[in-house]
Amino acid sequence: MASLRGARHISAPTWRLSPGCSAKPFHACFRPGLANNAQRFNQHNINTRRLHIQAVENCIQLAQDQMVSLHLAGLDWLTAIFGLALIPAALRVPLTIYSTRLSVRQSKLNPLVQFWNHTIQSPTRLQKVVDLAREKRRIYKEQGVQEWKGLAPMLTIPFWLVNTEAIRRVCGANGGLLSLISGRYRGTAQPDGEGAAFISDQAAAALSAASDGIQSAATALDTGVYYATGQLLFDIAARSDPLLLWPSLLAATMVSSFWPQGEEMKRLVFGLSTDLKLLAPGTRWRVRLSRAALVVGAVGPFTLCQLPMGLFWYWISSMWAGHAFRWFAQRFTGSPEEAIKKNKVAPCRNRESMFLRMK
C-alpha cells in the first residue's frame, strides 16, 4: 500500500506554483497573511512630509535673514521685529478690503432675510430659526456672498506663525509649535549619563580652543549682536519680563482685538441668559468663538510669561498694525457696522391714525 502511494507521487507531474500562490487549499487563500501585510506596511514613504517640513524650514530661515538684514541696515532689534510684523499686516490689506465689501453686500440683503423671517411658518421657534438659516444661506449663495468667504484674512496666519518661529529661534527660546511639528526639538534635547560627559568634554575642549581667537572673530564677524565685552545687545528682546508688563499689554491688546462689534453681537456674547439653541448655527458658533477668544486673550498671555519679550513685542505690534491697516482699508470701502445699521429693518412702533387730518 505504501509502495503504491509512493509510486503515485513519483509518477505525478511536477506543478510549479506561480509567484503569490500557495500550496494550501483554495479556501485558505482568503485568509489574511500577516507576514506579507507587515512587510508591506513597514515601507513608509515620507518624502512628501519631509518636503513640506523643508519648505517650512526654508521660510523660517528666510524670515530670520530678513530680520538680521533689517538690523544690519541700521535699525535696532525692536524696530527690526516691528518691520517683520508689518509683512503679515500688509498682506492682510487686500483680504480685509474683500471681507469688508463682502460684509457690506451681506448687509444689503437684510431686508430680504427679514421678509423670510415673517413669511416662514414653523411649528416651533427652534425649527423657525433652522429654516431661516437655511433660506439665508440660499440667498447668500445666490448672491455669491457666503459667510465662509469672510474668513479670507485668516489666510495670513501661516506667515504670522513663520515670523513667530523665526523670532523665537533668534531670541534663543526653547520649544515652539513649528519646531515640535518639524522635529527640531529633538536636536535640542539634553543627553545624560556617559554621553553627556563625553559631549561636555568635547564642548570644554572646543571652548578653550575658541577662546584664543574670540576677539579677532568678534571684529571680523560683528553683526551688531554683541558688545566688545560680550554683553548681548539683543538682551532687551531676548530676556523674559519678570514684572509681567508685556503679558499685560498683550492681554489688553488681544481683548480689544476680540471685543465684539455691534450692539447685537455684544448682547449675544455677554448675555449669559441667551439660549444658543435658538440662534442660527453660524451665529451660534460665532458667539462661542468670541467668548473663547476673550477668555484666551485675557488669560493666555500670562501662561507664556517665560517667553522672551521680543515675541510679545512682535504679537502686540502685529495686532496694532493690523488695526491700522484695517482702519485705512475702511476709509475706502466703508465700515460694515455703519452699513448694517443703515440696512437694518426695524418694525413700525408708531400707531397710525385711521383718518388723515388736514392742516
TrEMBL record:
<feature type="transmembrane region" description="Helical">
    <location>
        <begin position="292"/>
        <end position="316"/>
    </location>
</feature>
<keyword id="KW-0472">Membrane</keyword>
<dbReference type="GO" id="GO:0032979">
    <property type="term" value="P:protein insertion into mitochondrial inner membrane from matrix"/>
</dbReference>
<protein>
    <submittedName>
        <fullName>Mitochondrial inner membrane protein oxa1-1</fullName>
    </submittedName>
</protein>
<feature type="transmembrane region" description="Helical">
    <location>
        <begin position="77"/>
        <end position="98"/>
    </location>
</feature>
<keyword id="KW-0812">Transmembrane</keyword>
<comment type="similarity">
    <text>Belongs to the OXA1/ALB3/YidC family.</text>
</comment>
<dbReference type="InterPro" id="IPR001708">
    <property type="entry name" value="YidC/ALB3/OXA1/COX18"/>
</dbReference>
<keyword id="KW-1133">Transmembrane helix</keyword>
<dbReference type="GO" id="GO:0032977">
    <property type="term" value="F:membrane insertase activity"/>
</dbReference>
<dbReference type="GO" id="GO:0005743">
    <property type="term" value="C:mitochondrial inner membrane"/>
</dbReference>
<dbReference type="GO" id="GO:0033617">
    <property type="term" value="P:mitochondrial respiratory chain complex IV assembly"/>
</dbReference>
